[in-house]
């Protein structure tokens, strides 16, 4: 199967190709390179480009392509990519269902039908995987399908993380969405997904209620075990009676003790660092097997 073209042909009569156009800023994150935080929600991947995953207009391109000596981001024809996706889905879904899954994915990912970049491919595949989960009920077949779809996602190295600044309840919802996105990419079961987003909610609300502001980082890890890791950090007043809270002997009028204890019960690994005037950092992990 032919690879999708790297750029649209020139409209001139000579038949030469115009270089791929670049419509968004690029900032490289890698060893020895730093990038400022320009939004309330960022994704990071080791050695790749940082990308803001807020509104579609602020999404930055994925890693640059070096095929043919070009350092511009590859522009991918949506028809070629959807053909590849359909080729995978044809092994598992009927023609009508796979067309519905792809069309819905294109709408939900807000993909430009004329052309899309590598970062858009990731968003499209996330939505396609979401649809596949609804129709492929056999777990073995589902894992095979997702594995083949992941092979198309050469723009999405793993692991990656999403950082969310938390000040309001709306930010907590954004953190939940970030956790849900990573869970879908990792094909986490509905049960584990619910536990993970619930933990994010509890930790985020504690930041809003008791510290006023902070941040939540949601990341995937591969070593020593595959896991979704959540780190909630703030510079608030800290917790003075942590043993009492975790033992269940204390509960504030906002239910802080219940939130921390509930989070600990939901997750496989729980660590908290806090002290009077030192802020609080809670790190939890849910292992994926």
Describe the protein's topology.
Layout: E1 41-44, E2 51-52, E3 75-76, H1 78-89, H2 95-109, E4 116-117, H3 118-135, H4 139-152, E5 161-166, H5 169-185, H6 190-211, E6 214-221, E7 227-234, H7 242-247, H8 256-266, E8 269-274, E9 280-287
Antiparallel strand pairs: 1-2, 1-5, 3-4, 5-6, 6-7, 7-9, 8-9
Describe this structure in words.
- The protein is an alpha+beta fold and 289 residues long.
- It has two domains: 77 residues, no CATH class; 127 residues, Histidine kinase-like ATPase, C-terminal domain (Heat Shock Protein 90).
- The chain has eight helices and nine strands.
- The protein has a seven-stranded antiparallel β-sheet with strand order 2-1-5-6-7-9-8, with helices on one face. The chain has a two-stranded antiparallel sheet with strand order 3-4.
- A hairpin with a 5-residue loop joins strand 8 and strand 9.
- The longest helix has 22 residues.
- It is elongated, with a radius of gyration of 21 Å.
- The relative contact order is 0.10.
């Amino acid at each position: 199967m032919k690879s999708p073209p790297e750029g649209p042909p020139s409209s001139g009569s000579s038949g030469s190709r115009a270089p791929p156009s670049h419509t968004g800023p690029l900032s490289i994150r890698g060893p020895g390179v730093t990038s400022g935080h320009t939004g309330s929600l960022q994704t990071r991947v080791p050695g790749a480009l940082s990308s803001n995953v807020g509104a579609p207009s602020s999404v930055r391109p994925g890693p640059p392509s070096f095929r043919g000596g070009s350092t511009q981001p590859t522009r991918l024809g949506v028809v070629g990519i959807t053909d590849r996706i359909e080729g995978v889905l044809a092994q598992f879904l009927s023609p009508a269902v796979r067309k519905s899954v792809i069309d819905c994915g294109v709408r939900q990912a807000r993909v430009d039908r004329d052309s899309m970049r590598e970062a858009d491919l990731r968003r499209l595949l996330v939505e396609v995987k979401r649809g596949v989960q609804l129709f492929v009920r056999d777990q073995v077949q589902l894992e095979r399908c997702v594995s083949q779809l992941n092979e198309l996602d050469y723009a999405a190295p793993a692991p990656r993380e999403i950082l969310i600044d938390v000040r309001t309840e709306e930010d907590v919802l954004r953190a939940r969405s970030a956790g849900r996105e990573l869970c879908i990419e990792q094909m986490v079961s509905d049960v584990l997904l619910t536990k993970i987003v619930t933990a994010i909610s509890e930790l985020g609300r504690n930041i809003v209620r008791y510290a006023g502001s902070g941040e939540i980082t949601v990341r995937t890890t591969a070593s020593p075990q595959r896991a979704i890791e959540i780190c909630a950090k703030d510079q608030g007043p800290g917790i003075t009676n942590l043993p009492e809270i975790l033992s269940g002997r204390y509960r504030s009028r906002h239910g802080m003790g219940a939130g921390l204890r509930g989070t600990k019960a939901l997750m496989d690994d729980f660590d908290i660092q806090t002290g009077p005037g030192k802020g609080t950092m809670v790190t939890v992990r849910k292992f994926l097997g």
